Amino acid sequence: MQREAQWRLDSGSAVTEIWTNWAGNQRARAQLAKPTTESELVGLVKRAAERGQTVSAVGAGHSFTDVALSDAVLLSLENYDRILSVDLQRQTVTVEAGAQLHAMSEFLWSRGLAFENLGDIDVQSLAGASSTATHGTGLRFRNVSSGILGMRVITGDGSIVDCDAENNADVWSAARVGVGALGLISTITLRVVPAFNLRAVEESRRLEEVMEGFDDLVAANDHYEFFYVPHTDWTMTKSNQRNHDDPEPRSGIQEWFQETFMANRVFGVVNRVAAAQPKLVPQLARFVPASGRVEYNDRSYRVFATPRSVRFLEMEYAIPLESTMPALMEVKGWIDRTGTPTMFPIEVRAVSGDDIPLSTAYGRSTGYIAVHVFRGTPHERYFHEVEAIMKAHGGRPHWGKLHYRTHEDLASAYPGWDAFQAVRRRLDPIGIFQNAYANRVLGPLNP
Ligand SMILES: Cc1cc2nc3c(=O)[nH]c(=O)nc-3n(C[C@H](O)[C@H](O)[C@H](O)COP(=O)(O)OP(=O)(O)OC[C@H]3O[C@@H](n4cnc5c(N)ncnc54)[C@H](O)[C@@H]3O)c2cc1C
């Protein structure tokens, strides 16, 4: 199982460790525990409560925000990741919260099942991915959290609440996207679907053509996304159709060339040159790898997710679907006007609306626009500007990706805000699961 979060012992102490996230922009100095059983989880929460300490859970550390940080007790769920049961009839799987999406996909496939939809990586934990409303693309499909049928949650006093659409339904409703603040998720039961393949077509297309056809493209394809390369007129597009035809996977060499060599190594080198010579970005952007045209048909989870070795920082906004192209034009216009030296592609996706109070897709068909910078290059001005554009379009920031919003203006973006806060106050009245991020974006527990 791939472990990308980095751990190292702080020389000063046997119990306190320094933890950093995948992107390397967040650090915690905290007492680290790696529980392996539910009773350990309960014991750790109770002990922290007795000592007046706060507790945060961390999955795979793939959030860019400080959402999983703690300055007291950090619970890594990397060893609490077993698949507990699968129900072939009902098409459900029950797992411990730290179960990794990729490991789950391999297991599900061996039983003829699959995730309904996935984002573009699959190394996250299920609890971590669902807690921030992790999504893929596809207007007929929802995010990962929407598949959650039931959960077991450990509350601020260490008691256990089982919840689903019938029992403790308010807890279930909110905790599907709990942003780490509603308690410690112990287990999750997820709805899955019969295994399917994806026929992938990846090709470069002109921006103008893609923007004009966006509505039709997201309607016609099961899963459609594109990456606009700043300072060029080009996009790299990906369309995936679900099917049960015989697989026609790429050869090992082809896959290595496209994903490891071009999309990661060459892209990494181009970005390092650009970081050293920002003035060259408009010229260098032309060398951002584009695939030409590639077509293959493979297991769904192998097509949804790709490896990412180039480290970057990211902001992603969810906006009403109809605002997606106008907002992208505004971002492009700003980059062109200011000559902002970024060439990291801007990712554009579309997802079905849902009914989860703090889901970024709550109540509306949603377009997602994500901007990235190579790690170590300036991002503040760019991200602030993009945020202002997205905010004007009624945008909601991805909880796991960088943003500058606070509870003061986020509350009005979520019709289910008060319902979420009521569950939060009930499950965690003294704030065991509070951290700086929760304080900032969800607000104090008792305002
Ligand atoms: C390279 C890369 C690609 C990405 N691609 C996508 C994408 O395609 N789509 C997308 O939507 N996002 C994407 N993301 C963002 C990522 O999916 C989210 O940030 C996700 O939350 C990370 O999962 P994790 O397991 O690493 O959780 P962490 O970052 O470790 O934690 C996230 C939150 O979950 C909470 N949490 C974890 N476990 C528990 C638990 N047991 N109980 C309660 N709370 C818990 C944490 O406290 C924290 O609040 C990407 C991130 C990276 C780095």
Brief descriptors of the model:
447 residues, alpha+beta, Uridine Diphospho-n-acetylenolpyruvylglucosamine Reductase, domain 2, Vanillyl-alcohol Oxidase, Chain A, domain 3, five-stranded mixed β-sheet, disordered N terminus, binds flavin-adenine dinucleotide
CATH topology of the largest domain: Vanillyl-alcohol Oxidase, Chain A, domain 3
The number of domains is 3
Percent range of helical residues: 25-40%
* Low confidence ranges: 1-14
The outline comes out as: globular
**Arithmetic mean pLDDT:** 91
Number of helices: 14
Number of β-strand runs: 20
CATH architecture of the largest domain: 3-Layer(aba) Sandwich
Strand order of the largest sheet: 16-13-15-14-18-19-17-20
Radius of gyration: 21 Å
At the first level of CATH, the class of the largest domain is Alpha Beta
Distance between the termini: 42 Å
Structural class given helices, strands, pairing? Answer: alpha+beta
Small-molecule components bound: flavin-adenine dinucleotide
Major sheet attributes:
8 strands, antiparallel
CATH superfamily of the largest domain: FAD-linked oxidases, C-terminal domain
Strand content: 25-35%
Overview of the structural elements:
The protein is α+β, with helices and mostly antiparallel strands and 447 residues long. The chain has 14 helices and 20 strands. The protein has an eight-stranded antiparallel sheet with strand order 16-13-15-14-18-19-17-20. Strands 1-2-3-5-4 form a five-stranded mixed sheet, covered by helices on one side. Strands 6-7-11-9-10 form a five-stranded antiparallel sheet. The longest helix is centred in the middle third of the chain and has 25 residues, at 252-276. It starts with 5 loop residues before the first strand and ends in a 6-residue tail after the last helix. 49% of the residues are buried. Residues 1-14 have low confidence and may be disordered. Flavin-adenine dinucleotide (FAD) binds at residues 22-23, 56-63, 67-68, 77, 97, 119-121, 124-125, 127-129, 131-132, 134-135, 178-180, 184-185, 308, 398, 400.
